[in-house]
């Protein structure tokens, strides 16, 4: 789990020395409950959102530091686990829309999103590219 500081310039915020590693989730057999790994980080983020008294050495004074989790980034599998969704091989594979998948016609436990639904005709000129 890496934290990125967005108040740094874009050209340096992704450098390895500027990222903060706050945890490692074991794999390939990842835990069933990712929230148990994220709970300590979530608690710290909640404290930072309310403000934490911090010393500013350049001004020689204390100030309230606030930090917020803007949005999570990751590959498909990581985001599925973070959002606690079923994933890309489920009946509703998209986390942003309500598209529905169908069963694999070969009887496997696999879902896929077809280009057309049963009874529909695909008209190439109407496809948005």
TrEMBL record:
Superkingdom, natural source: Eukaryota
InterPro entries, per the entry: Transposase_21 (IPR004242)
Protein name listed in UniProt: Uncharacterized protein
Organism encoding this protein: Hypholoma sublateritium (strain FD-334 SS-4)
């Amino acid at each position: 789990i890496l934290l990125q500081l967005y108040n740094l310039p874009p050209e340096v915020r992704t450098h390895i020395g500027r990222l903060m590693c706050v945890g490692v989730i074991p794999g390939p057999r990842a835990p069933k409950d990712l929230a148990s790994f994220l709970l300590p980080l979530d608690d710290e983020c909640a404290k930072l959102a309310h403000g934490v008294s911090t010393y500013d050495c350049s001004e020689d004074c204390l100030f309230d530091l606030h930090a917020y989790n803007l949005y999570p980034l990751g590959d498909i599998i990581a985001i599925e686990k973070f959002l606690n969704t079923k994933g890309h091989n489920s009946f509703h594979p998209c986390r942003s829309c309500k598209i529905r998948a169908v069963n694999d016609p070969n009887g496997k436990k696999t879902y896929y999103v077809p280009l057309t639904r049963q009874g529909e005709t695909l008209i190439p000129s109407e496809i948005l590219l």
